[in-house]
């Protein structure tokens, strides 16, 4: 089991030259949060600060209450799945998954059983020996998800994991992630440009614009009648102005 840990960004400042960022957000333990916002608003940067690929210039990132300053990505209680290039091309499915468990591929009994379970859970049973190029795009993403699962980290980060998939497969993968969450209860952060993915999957929404967190709250508020105005604008559905 890897029950979730809360993720908190407290007054976090960062910059790439002209692109400046300021994030404040509390992502509750064990909940699924969708990170949304226009292209270039800072969604990947937000995730990279949590995962430890970037260090804040000011403020604090906390996971499970612990200050992550100076903690490298591999020592954080986090696994991250990127949009693509997740797999080693020369290794079969089962080894790509096993790498999440043992970077030297020396597996004990418990490791082997975790790998087998993750392959079953992601519907990859029977495809263990295939190389990545012998899989569909959706199957490759599932291998990446299986690898993240065997790591059993309390926080799972997905950066547009469904972007390369068609609508039917995307819906299927959303269900897959939801089922995993039901079983494991980890905290999940995911970036999506698709409001319907957020509506299906998220408990919370964080909306970014121009490097800042401009609205956060329960997904049911974002997708209900009382949606925050910046979110309506982002969706292209602003309230008509009075009068
Ligand atoms: N390594 C980098 N060096 C310099 N600038 C960067 C770097 N990474 C991102 N940026 C800039 O920071 C801003 C935010 O980028 P980021 O990738 O976080 O946005 P995003 O919301 O994830 O965008 P998209 O939806 O297009 O993926 C952009 O203006 C981008 O050009």
UniProtKB/TrEMBL annotation:
Gene Ontology molecular function terms on file: ATP binding; ATP hydrolysis activity
InterPro entries: AAA+_ATPase, ABC_SmlMolc_Importer, ABC_transporter-like_ATP-bd, ABC_transporter-like_CS, P-loop_NTPase
Pfam families reported for this sequence: ABC_tran
Domain of life: Bacteria
The entry's keywords: ATP-binding, Cell inner membrane, Cell membrane, Membrane, Nucleotide-binding, Translocase, Transport
Domain annotation ABC transporter: ranges: 7-235
Keyword Secreted among record annotations: no
Family membership: Belongs to the ABC transporter superfamily.
PANTHER family documented for this protein: SPERMIDINE/PUTRESCINE IMPORT ATP-BINDING PROTEIN POTA, THIAMINE IMPORT ATP-BINDING PROTEIN THIQ
Protein's recorded name: ATP-binding cassette domain-containing protein
């Amino acid at each position: 089991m890897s029950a979730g840990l809360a993720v908190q960004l407290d007054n976090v400042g960062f910059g790439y030259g002209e692109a400046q960022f300021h994030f404040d957000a509390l992502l509750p333990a064990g909940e699924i949060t969708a990170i949304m916002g226009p292209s270039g608003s800072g969604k990947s940067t937000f995730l990279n600060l949590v995962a430890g690929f970037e260090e804040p210039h000011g403020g604090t990132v906390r996971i499970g209450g612990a200050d992550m300053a100076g903690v490298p990505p591999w020592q954080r209680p986090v696994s991250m799945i990127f949009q693509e290039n997740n797999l080693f091309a020369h290794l079969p499915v089962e080894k790509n998954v096993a790498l999440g468990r043992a970077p030297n591929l020396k597996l004990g009994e418990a490791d082997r059983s975790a790998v087998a379970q993750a392959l079953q859970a992601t519907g990859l049973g029977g495809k263990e020996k295939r190389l990545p190029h012998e899989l569909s795009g959706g199957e490759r993403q599932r291998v990446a998800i299986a690898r993240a699962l065997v790591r059993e980290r309390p926080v799972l980060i997905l950066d547009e994991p469904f972007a390369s998939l068609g609508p039917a497969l995307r819906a299927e993968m959303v269900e897959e992630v939801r089922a995993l969450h039901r079983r494991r209860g980890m905290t999940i952060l995911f970036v999506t440009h698709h409001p319907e993915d957020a509506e299906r999957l998220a408990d919370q929404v964080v909306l970014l614009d121009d490097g800042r967190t401009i609205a956060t709250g329960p997904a049911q508020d974002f997708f209900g009648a009382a949606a925050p105005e910046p979110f309506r604008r982002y969706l292209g559905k602003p309230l008509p102005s009075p009068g």
